[in-house]
Specification:
By secondary structure, the protein is mainly beta. About 10% of the residues lie in helices and about 65% in strands. It starts with a helix and ends with a strand.
C-alpha cells in the first residue's frame, strides 16, 4: 500500500512539472486599484475610513526558482501613486503618497492560472495633504512613510500577457504626525492603513 502511495505521489509531481521547472520570468506591468484607507490610533479614536480609486502603479516582477528546483518564488517592485485618508467627526482628511514596494510574491501555477501570495514592505513619501478645513502639512506632520504589505490574489495567463487580480493590506509603521501634535501631555499615536483591491496587466519580457 505504501509503495502505491509513493508511486502516485511521484506521478503527481511529474504531472505538475510547471511547479518545479527551472525557469525565470521577467514582467513589466501597470496596475490600478481601489483603496479603503484609514487610521489606526492609540488611544483608539475610531476614525472612519475613506474610499478612493486613485491608486496607480508601474511594476517590475521577476519569478525565479529556489536552488534551481522549486519554481514558486518571485520579487516585485515598482513605483505607486495613491491618495489615502481618514474621516474625523469634523470632516475628511486626504493625502497623496508616492510609494516604492518591495514584495516577495509566491506563485503556485496550475493550468493557465497562478495563485499569488504577497509579503513585503514599502517606503514612501507623503507629498501633499488636504484637510477638511483646507489646511495642509505642518511642522508636526511626518512625510516619510514606511511599513509592510501582505495579501494575495489570482493571475490569469494568456502569453505574452498576464492579468493579476489582488487584494493587499498596507500598514504604516511611521506616525502620520508627531504624537504631541495636539497635546504635549496626552500623546496620540497615528498609523495609516489601507486595503487595496487592484487589477494589473503585465507583459512577459
Amino acid at each position: 500500500m505504501s509503495k502505491r502511495i509513493i508511486i502516485v505521489f511521484i506521478l503527481a509531481l511529474l504531472s505538475n512539472a510547471d511547479l518545479f521547472a527551472q525557469t525565470k520570468q521577467h514582467m513589466l506591468g501597470v496596475r490600478a486599484g481601489y483603496n479603503i484607507s484609514g487610521l489606526d490610533t492609540r488611544p483608539d479614536l475610531e476614525y472612519k475610513s475613506v474610499t478612493t480609486n486613485e491608486n496607480f502603479s508601474i511594476l517590475y516582477t521577476y519569478y525565479h526558482n529556489l536552488w534551481g528546483t522549486i519554481d514558486i518564488f518571485g520579487i516585485q517592485t515598482g513605483i505607486s501613486s495613491s491618495k489615502q485618508g481618514y474621516k474625523t467627526p469634523d470632516g475628511e482628511n486626504l493625502y497623496e503618497v508616492v510609494t516604492i514596494p518591495v514584495v516577495s510574491q509566491f506563485h503556485f501555477d496550475f493550468w493557465k492560472m497562478r495563485i499569488l501570495l504577497n509579503a513585503g514592505c514599502f517606503g514612501g513619501y507623503r507629498q501633499k495633504r488636504v484637510n477638511y478645513d483646507g489646511s495642509g502639512f505642518d511642522e508636526f506632520d511626518n512625510k516619510v512613510d514606511l511599513g509592510f504589505i501582505a495579501g494575495g490574489g489570482l493571475a490569469f495567463i494568456a502569453k505574452p500577457f498576464e492579468l493579476h487580480v489582488e487584494g493587499n493590506y498596507h500598514y504604516s509603521l511611521t506616525y502620520l504626525h508627531d504624537p504631541k501634535k495636539y497635546s504635549p501631555t496626552d500623546y496620540l499615536f497615528t498609523y495609516p492603513k489601507q486595503l487595496v483591491f487592484s487589477v494589473a496587466l503585465h507583459i512577459h519580457l
